[in-house]
Write a structure and sequence with these properties.
By secondary structure, the protein is an alpha/beta fold. About 25% of the residues lie in helices and about 30% in strands.
Length: about 260
């Protein structure tokens, strides 16, 4: 039975955000420190990357503090980005999908409804959505359509033994989380279903909501699937770098 380890890799930050960004419509008078991450799943002879970070060009354009090329961060745990075969894209916001070109041999796994929204829905071109997307990385993924390097998923689907993508809408049209079989049970890389651990703990989403009802149903789903609450990981919490064993600079082993 395949079991895996999960690593969090910080590629940019820290950034200061308003409390209301990470705890929707609350904490207006507070601030929160967050980081930008990708994740690496290793085990059973496989390496799977969750999310792609951003390219150096995009980091410069968006003036991302503390940026390190995700390919260089992966190299610290002996993973060569140009040899990675599996990349799950949780959703197509720029900080999660902007670095797809860094993985030239990878097959990308995306929910079809997520992909279609950003490529085909005119709403995606309007300011609130355009602000958090990236036309270059979206175009790169579009160039792969019809090849074996782009797999469009329809709902929950296992992509490798012990690794399952879960449709988890709310933050975006069809965000997906990743359930992973580990020695501690089923862990879930939640990406932006929660920006910080408090979102899960207090049953309160973060900002950028396209479907609040869907988001709350997603929380129910994830709590039912994960083996224990401490195996449900958020997308931007600084505690991912502070509360877990460091295996290399800016890289921690979550489980």
């Amino acid at each position: 039975m395949s079991q895996y380890e999960i690593y969090a890799l910080k590629y940019a930050g820290p950034f200061i955000r308003t409390g209301a960004h990470v705890m929707w419509y609350r904490d207006w008078d507070k601030v929160e420190t967050v980081n930008y991450y990708i994740w690496c799943i290793k085990g059973a002879g496989e390496t799977v990357i969750v999310d792609a970070g951003v390219t150096p060009q995009m980091a410069a354009e968006r003036e991302l503090d503390g940026y390190v090329n995700p390919a260089d961060v992966l190299a610290r745990i002996s993973v060569k980005a140009d040899e990675v075969r599996h990349v799950v894209i949780s959703h197509m916001h720029f900080d999660h999908a902007g670095g797809v070109s860094l993985f030239p041999q990878a097959t990308f796994y995306i929910q079809e409804d997520e992909y279609r929204f950003w490529l085909e829905n005119p709403i995606a071109a309007r300011p609130p959505f355009k602000h958090v997307s990236d036309a270059i990385s979206t175009g790169y993924l579009a160039s792969l359509e019809g090849t074996d390097r782009l797999v469009l998923l329809k709902g929950d689907q296992q992509i490798l033994p012990g690794i399952q993508c879960l449709l988890s809408p709310g933050h975006t049209i069809a965000l997906q989380t990743v359930a992973v079989r580990t020695t501690g049970g089923t862990a879930i890389i939640g990406s932006d279903c929660a920006h910080v651990f408090r979102n899960y703990q207090e049953d309160w989403p973060s900002a950028l909501i396209v479907d609040l009802v869907g988001w709350m149903k997603t929380y129910d789903k994830l709590h039912q699937r994960v083996s224990s609450p401490d195996l449900l990981f958020p997308g931007h919490d600084r505690l991912l770098t502070e509360n877990y064993p460091e295996v290399a600079r800016d890289i921690t082993r979550l489980v």
